[in-house]
## 1
Amino acid sequence: MSDAEYNILYVPGSSEIKSSRATNASSTTKAEWLRPSHGFRIRVLSIEVVHAGATSNGIEVYFGDGTNISTNSGKEILEERSAAIGSLFRSWPDGAGPVGDPGEPITYRGTASVAENVTLIIHYREEPRR
């Protein structure tokens, strides 16, 4: 990618790449994961979901504070309905991934209450308002 192409994607004033880890411990209740700094929005670069057990437990990751992914239509980051042990990884070019509104959190929710954990890892930038 040339410098000119990169500058189209990268938003000046954005933070360095940050990361966060969360664990969904057998709950179908939504949980706020990340909230951007005041006046900034989150741009997702990658997300990984790792199942620790053999029981199915899908996961929903989305922008906003709705009860579930359906409540926040158009704000989806990842909806994964995998069964059993495994992992899922998604990535986007820098500046081209899903982006929330200024101040909007990233929320996650399990789709079933099971004994095994689901671990989530995200890489993101905080971007200024445009």
## 2
Amino acid sequence: MPLKAIAMLLLVVLQVTNQQHLKAQTTITIGPSIAAGTNTFPENGRLGLGFTLQCLRALHPNGSLVTSTSYMWFNQRFPGVDSRTVLDSIPKIGLNGYDISFIPFTVGYKRFVFRQAAFLSAELGAGIIGTREDPEDLISYCSFLYAIGSGYRFKFANGRFADLSFQYTANRIDKNVHRNYFKFSTTYALWASKKNL
């Protein structure tokens, strides 16, 4: 199961960082996200809304370990069309035009490339994709996913910060079924530990 693999990966990461006794700052960030699906989505179902939650643990002054989750919702309803009519060209996900929910879980690395402001990121993990193939039945799939992105950090006088980021996420359900999207997020440092590098 992909979720069990993620849980094991998180445990390994935590064990490694604890063994290294990293005197690093840990920060929790959260904020809204908006997404645009690629052509792996039907044309009328490419707008997604949601939020992103991240835990950042500094590994050195210019890089952080990132554990992340989010919720993204894509509305793929077809107004005025009988729900029994199959309209999506990809049969396994979004069948009959019902909306889709993505809940990814990832681990990755964020690296500053300019003055501890501009950064690049890469993440790997798995996720849950929920949709309806029947008005009464909510079904879910597990996907393998990776994400790459870039962004910019705005620092405030109180030591907090906000990250503006642009990310490409690829979800692979099986070799023939994908759901990929671009995501723009604004996350704010909600909490930070007192440890500093």
## 3
Amino acid sequence: MSESIDECVSRLKCMAEEDSKWDLSYNDRKAIWMVIDSRERLKMACDEFTAVSEGEVSFKDGKMVASLKSRIHLVFAEAFYDLVIDSGAKNYLEVTFQGERGNILMHLQRLDGETPHNMRVKAQAWAKAWKKAAKRYRMLCLSNPMNRSKPA
């Protein structure tokens, strides 16, 4: 059975504090305390890196919008931005992530971009307007006496 890092550090701390029991040299004790100190500094850095400094979660048009600020959020935002830019996507990108706990589909969209649904709605409105204009043109052509066929 493997030990977690916290269990290992805890065991090392006990060894360093009870050095007479373990017959540790000065260098061994120093190395153990360096590992413990490094672990604690790393944990503090991780906590600072992931701490949310400010942010809000709101709902707009039935969608959840999260605006969070922390160092890790900035790293993810930059990575996702680069992913969209590097892919050459003009509006949006769908990315599938596969992991041990299952697969997820992430939809990345530029705020000034359009989703496929937005583009389809626009195209349908455009097609409807053109059909209406073509029908009006046909009616105008048929109502013009010059376009009517003359009886034989």
